[in-house]
Amino acid sequence: MKKKSRTVRTFGIMVANPRQRKYVLRKYLARKAAHMRLFCFTPSEIDWKRKTILGLHHAKWKWVQQRFPFPEVVYNRCYTTKKTTIERLEAAIGSSKCFNQQNRFDKYEIYKLLSQPLAPYLPETVPYDRETAAQLLETHKVLYVKPCYGYQGKGVYRVEAKESGEIHISQHYFSPQFVAADVPQYQTKLDKLLGSALYLVQQGVNLQQWNDQVFDVRALVQKDESGVWSVTNVVSRIAHKGCFNTSICDKICMSDEVLRHLYPHEKADVFLQTIRDISLKAAETVESGTGLHLGELSVDFALDNDERLWIIEVNGKPQKEIYDEFRGQDAVYKRPLQYADYLYTHSPLH
């Protein structure tokens, strides 16, 4: 293939609402290559008849809203289960030109996809019903009840069976919000809390702690300039004391700092390499199993007191803000643009 000259390439970043456009675009503008022209838009700003988009971009030191022709590549940052808009865009600009087609995953569907290649790293997970929730609590003593389409720990309940026979139900913090005297009372309360939403039940993990605080390990996996999955970084969110939800975090740091605090450096490095290997396998499995065209995702791990790694969940729209306080993390924002460049260059039309 002949090397292409660096003509200006227009890439669009699709976000959920107009308020997000400037904030998101500013992050990527700082990391774009000179030959890239970026604009940010929402689904409602697409004019399907004229094949144009009213988008926000930055030109001559100011923010400008103008009408663009359909871009060369679209990077989807809308957190949604719907693919309708992306499918219409693909019909217009090409099926290989839109990535992260759908990025709000059904946690149970992802669990099923990962359960064969990565079974040793998955806590037992089943769809919620009152009988199953009672049986698994008897088996594991601690459960997490999660919405299938939840995010940032919202709607997650921790359930613990005490030796006294009481059952504690808590949200965000280990201290119980509700204490059930027996299993029927626990079932009734949980049914009321969950309502009609789809939930799953996940085996609780005896979490390793750092300075008496729960932490997770999040691997950010993104496609690079060669179109290949690679691990951009591995960070840890340290929850506030008494809190099990790491989305409500006291601090964020690189995971090697946490692991090397807990273990000798060689052992910590083995954990990190294992995390990288599992995360790459998870990304490949999710993309091939769902049939979605993806460009990034994150894999959240917990480490238990027996030094065993567990995949807690996979996120289709990684939260980028958690990386902003780290120096040298430009790749978080640069990689999606490099992958967009790759898609342009490797399009059948080019």
TrEMBL record:
Keyword GTP-binding belongs to the record: no
Residues annotated as domain ATP-grasp: 111-348
UniProt entry keywords in alphabetical sequence: ATP-binding, Nucleotide-binding
Organism: Paenibacillus elgii
Protein name: ATP-grasp domain-containing protein
Domain of life assignment: Bacteria
Signal peptide: none
Any one GO MF annotation of this record: ATP binding
